[in-house]
C-alpha cells in the first residue's frame, strides 16, 4: 500500500482560512460506508441522523496557547518555542526555531521577563527539553503570552482564541484542536441529548505529529507519534452500554476514534484507563468499537485520510472527496464535515 495511493489534488482556495460565525452552519457530506452513496446537508442536521440509543464520543481535550515568541537573553535574537508535552511542573518537551541558536545552556526571555527559560537537553528529532522560570501560575502566564498553535496551512490571524477550541474543551494539553468537534454548539449538543443519544467524553491530547507528513513510500513503514489518552469509567460504561443494546458508537473526530480503538480489549470492551497510544489505522484495520465517524476533510497522503479510508474504503473516500471538491466544500481545520455511517 503506497502513500501516493492517498493523493488527491486540492485547489488552494478550498482550504478554509477562517471559522464560520455559526459553528453548526458548516456543510455536512454524508457517506454510506458500505455503498459509497452520498448526501449533502448542513451540519446541524446531524440531530436527525442520530438515533436514540446511539452513543456520541467526544474528545474534551483543550488546546493550550503553545506558541511562545521570545528573545535570546544574551543576544536579543528572536526565537520561537512551541510547547509539545509537559514532562514535570516546570519542564516541557518543545520544538524550537531556530534550533542552531538554542543549544543546552541557552536562555530565553518572554514578555519582558514575565517568563524565562533554559534549554536543558536536545532530544530525538531535535526537540528540546526546556525548563521555565516564573512567578505565579504558569497557565495564566501562558494565556497572556502564548499564541494559539494554528496549523501551517492557516495563514489568517485568528481573531478569537476560543474559535480554535471546542465548546466542551476541558483538560489542557493539546497542541492542535480536535477539529471535528468545532462544529458543535452547546444548543446542538442539548438537542442530541434530548433525542436520547448518550454523550461520552474521552480525552486525547493531540500532538503536533498530527500535521507530520508521511515521508515513506510504503504506508506500513510509517511510525506514528505518541499521544496521551484517558477514558473515565463513566465514558467506558456509556460506550459499552450502547454496544450492548445495539446502538451505534459514533466518534466525533479521528482522535476520539483512535482513543477508543486503542483502549478496547480483544472483545471490544472499554475500561477506565489512561495510557499513551501510537495506533496507526489504515485500510485493512478491523474496528473493534467504532461504528460511524464525524470528521473533517483531511490533507492528501495524511494518516487521517488513511484512517477514514480504513472505515469507508479508499475508493469510496476518494470519490466522496472528489465530489466535495466539485461542490466546493471547505477543507481542513476550519472547513466542512463528513458523516461516515
Strand-pairing-aware structural class: alpha/beta
CATH superfamily of the largest domain: QueA-like
Label the overall shape. globular
Mean pLDDT over the full residue set = 95
Describe the biggest sheet? 9 strands, mixed
Strand content: 25-35%
The CATH topology annotation of the largest domain reads as: QueA-like
CATH class of the largest domain: Alpha Beta
Radius of gyration: 20 Å
Strand order of the largest sheet: 2-1-17-16-14-3-12-13-15
Percent of residues in helices: 10-25%
Q: How many beta-strand segments?
A: 17
Query: How do the SSEs run, as a string of H and E?
Result: EEHEEEEEEEEHEHEEHEHEEHHE
> Kindly, what is the distance between the CA atoms of the first and last residues, rounded to a whole number of angstroms?
24 Å
Domain tally: 2
Unreliable spans: none
Would you mind describing this structure in some detail?
The structure is a single chain. By secondary structure, the chain is an alpha/beta fold. The chain folds into two domains: 3-63 and 160-340, QueA-like (3-Layer(aba) Sandwich), CATH 3.40.1780; 67-145, QueA-like (Thrombin, subunit H), CATH 2.40.10. It is 19% helix and 27% strand. The chain has seven helices and 17 strands. The chain has helices spanning 46-49, 138-145, 186-194, 233-244, 254-263, 303-312, 314-326, and strands at 27-31, 38-42, 55-59, 61-63, 67-72, 78-86, 91-97, 107-110, 115-122, 128-134, 171-174, 198-204, 227-231, 249-252, 273-277, 292-296, 337-340. It has a nine-stranded mixed sheet with strand order 2-1-17-16-14-3-12-13-15. It has a six-stranded antiparallel beta barrel with strand order 5-6-7-10-9-8. A hairpin with a 6-residue loop joins strand 1 (27-31) and strand 2 (38-42). Helix 6 (303-312) packs across helix 7.
